[in-house]
Amino acid sequence: MAEAERIIGTPDIPEAAEGGEPSEEGQRSEGEPKPEGRRKIAVLFGVALFAYALDLISKMIVVAKLEHQEPIDVVGDLLRFNAIRNAGAAFGFGEAYTIIFTVIAAAVIVVIARLARKLYSLPWAIALGLLLGGALGNLTDRIFRSPGLFKGAVVDFIAPKNFAVFNLADSAIVCGGILIVLLSFRGLDPDGTVHKD
C-alpha cells in the first residue's frame, strides 16, 4: 500500500500569490482532485464499468448456453469456447487458495479506488480501469457462485489450443498489467509526471 502511494504521489497544488487572493485551485481542499484529475477518474471508472459489464454479460451467456455442453470450435482447433469452473487464480493456477485470491482481488479494488483521486494520467487511468474491471468481474464470481461465499469458482470459457482456459476479466487484468509495465518503462507516473532513471 505504501509503495502504491509513493508511485501515485500527491500532485502539487499551486500556492496563492503572496499578498493576493487564493486561486480557485488554492481554495480547493487538499484531497479534492482538480478538474483534469476528475476527468481521469471518470475514464478509470468508465473503463472499469465497461470491462466489468462485458465480463458479467459473457459469463451469463456462457452459463446459460454453454455450460454442460460440448465445446464450440471458434477458429478450427486453435480457439474454442469451453465452459469450466475455476476455483484458482487467473488461468487456473492455485485452486487450493481460493479465499486468498478473493482477499487479493478485494485489496486491489480498495487500493485502486483509494488512489484514484491522485490520478492525472490518461494511460494510467485506462490501465487501472482494466485492472479494476477485471478484479471486480472475478470477485463477483467468488462472492456469488458456488460452492459458497468468498469461495466461488470463476466461470472460464476462452480456450486457446495448448493454453489455459480463461475469461474476459482475466484478459482485462493481463492487458492492464502489461500497460502498467510499459508505462513504468517509459517513466510515466500515474500523477502525469515523467521521470528518467
UniProtKB/TrEMBL annotation:
GO cellular component: plasma membrane
One Gene Ontology term from the biological process aspect of the record: proteolysis
UniProt keyword annotation of Hydrolase present: yes
Record-annotated active site: 156, 170
Pathway listed: Protein modification; lipoprotein biosynthesis (signal peptide cleavage)
Stored InterPro entries: Peptidase_A8
Region of interest called Disordered, as start-end residue ranges on this chain: 1-35
Molecular function terms, GO-annotated: aspartic-type endopeptidase activity
Main location class: membrane
Membrane topology: Multi-pass membrane protein
Documented EC number(s): 3.4.23.36
Reaction(s) this enzyme catalyzes, per UniProt: Release of signal peptides from bacterial membrane prolipoproteins. Hydrolyzes -Xaa-Yaa-Zaa-|-(S,diacylglyceryl)Cys-, in which Xaa is hydrophobic (preferably Leu), and Yaa (Ala or Ser) and Zaa (Gly or Ala) have small, neutral side chains
Highest taxon above the source species: Bacteria
Residues passing through the membrane, by range: 41-62, 96-115, 122-144, 164-185
Biased composition (Basic and acidic residues): 25-35
Keyword annotations of the record: Aspartyl protease, Cell membrane, Hydrolase, Lipoprotein, Membrane, Protease, Transmembrane, Transmembrane helix
Subcellular location: Cell membrane
Function recorded in the entry: This protein specifically catalyzes the removal of signal peptides from prolipoproteins.
Entry-linked NCBIfam families: lspA
Family: Belongs to the peptidase A8 family.
UniProt name for this protein: Lipoprotein signal peptidase
Organism: Streptomyces aurantiacus JA 4570
Gene that produces this protein: lspA
